[in-house]
Amino acid sequence: xxxxxxxxxxxxxxxxxxxxxxxxxxxxxxxxxxxxxxxxxxxxxxxxxxxxxxxxxxxxxxxxxxxxxxxxxxxxxxxxxxxxxxxxxxxxxxxxxxxxxxxxxxxxxxxxxxxxxxxxxxxxxxxxxxxxxxxxxxxxxxxxxxxxxxxxxxxxxxxxxxxxxxxxxxxxxxxxxxxxxxxxxxxxxxxxxxxxxxxxxxxxxxxxxx
Length: 210
Prior knowledge:
By secondary structure, the chain is mainly alpha-helical. It is built from five helices and five strands; from the N terminus they run ββββαβαααα. It has a domain at 2-54. It has helices at residues 33-41, 56-112, 128-138, 151-172, 179-209, and strands at 2-7, 12-14, 17-19, 24-27, 45-50. It comes from Pseudomonas corrugata.
């Protein structure tokens, strides 16, 4: 058991000792209890009770070893991933070659088969080139589906286009009165046209009576 004493200010003297900021290790018995009590009460000193001597060099070496082990483990995992990638690439290349050669092999084997009766039920007659094209078409790589459009953005565009359309309509005819005003004006004109006719009829009746 020992103590590590650090000074807030490097070189601070207390108890006849120049204390260091990095700390000084003292084994049991090197300092008296009176000195330790005085050092514990001193605000410029930090007294740390430790079970064994602290060594920054040992800690640095331990950290370096851990880092080296971690790096070695990561490098090993990376090597395994690269090997798996290379194996998958070779397998994919072989499968691609087999896929490209499959249509011609199927047509060749189909031609080597015994011909069937064309009039029999279930018999299909097809040219070799047409069969080759059909098989090749179905063995093509599947294309990725395009992303679905954003409904929110479409709705925003629709609303904006509707607003622009209504704005352009209102700007196209700024002096046009509302439809209600048109119907009212027509009705007023019609009534005005009918009134003189009625007066004329009444006047003609009076003249007849006379």
